[in-house]
Structure formats: structure tokens, C-alpha cells
Amino acid sequence: MKQLMSLHTIDDLTSCILDFQANFVRIAYRKKATVVDPDEAPEHESALESIWIDSKLEEEVDSDGQVLKWRKLGFESEDIIHEFEDVGLLGLECLVREDLCKEKFQIKMVSRQQRLVHTEPDFSRVRSSAADRNISLMLI
Q1: Which residues lie across from 60 on neighbouring strands?
Q2: Which of 13, 29, 31, 55 is the most buried (most CB within 10 A)?
Q3: pLDDT value for 67
Q4: Where are the beta strands (DSSP E) in the chain?
Q5: Structural domain containing residue 42
Q6: Could you tell me which residue, 117 or 84, shows the higher pLDDT?
Q7: CA dist 26 → 22, 31, 33, 36, 85 (Å)
Q8: How many CA within 13 A on the CB side of residue 7?
């Protein structure tokens, strides 16, 4: 009788864990599919502004007269909607989480800026791999 009870409990727990994992993945996918649009969503704008302010970098103008802001952080362009197209709100939340460790974030940005002085930034590989890595870590 004791053995039947323990098997029943394990089955209940397994079902709950599987439900939790399914819901977690569903939420992560929904966030990944949510478009980051600072013009339409004030919370997106404030998150991006927070990241920019904490980077302690200043906007510049390149030789073509275009503003250099997000490219200084490693993005390919200044079009934020396009930059977060592959990772959506999930990618923005990952950057915000990274930004919470401000000292570490600032050190990374300064070292990245020094490394990228003579090269073109390539954030496209980092964007997708960072979101994939964070999703993988969440599923473990």
C-alpha cells in the first residue's frame, strides 16, 4: 500500500513539473515573438533608455551624418525594431537583466568599445546566441 501511494505522488509531481515547463516555454516563446517597438510600448522605450544611460556612452555622428548610438553598443544599425526582430521582448529583457549588474555591464561596454575601435561591430550572432543560451538555461 505504501508503494502505491509513493508512485501516485511521483506521478502527480511529474505532471506538475511538465505543466510548469510547458507554460514556461510558452511564455518564453511569446516574449521572443513580441516585437520590440519603443514608439508603441513605453516600457520598451524606458528599458532601452535605461540600457543606453547605464552604458555611459555618448551619441556621435558618423562620417555619413548618421547618429551613432546603438551601433556603439554593438548593434548593426540604429533601427531597434529590426535589431530585436529575431529575439523580441525576450532579448530586450535579457539585456535589461544584464544591465542590472551595472558595473559589470559598464566594464563590458568599455572593453567592447576598445576592441571594436578598428572593426565593424557584429551583434547579429550575439543577439541570437544570447537569447538561445538564455532559453536553454531556463529549460535546465
Answers
A1: 68
A2: 55
A3: 84
A4: 60-61, 67-68
A5: 34-139
A6: 84
A7: 6, 9, 11, 18, 18
A8: 4
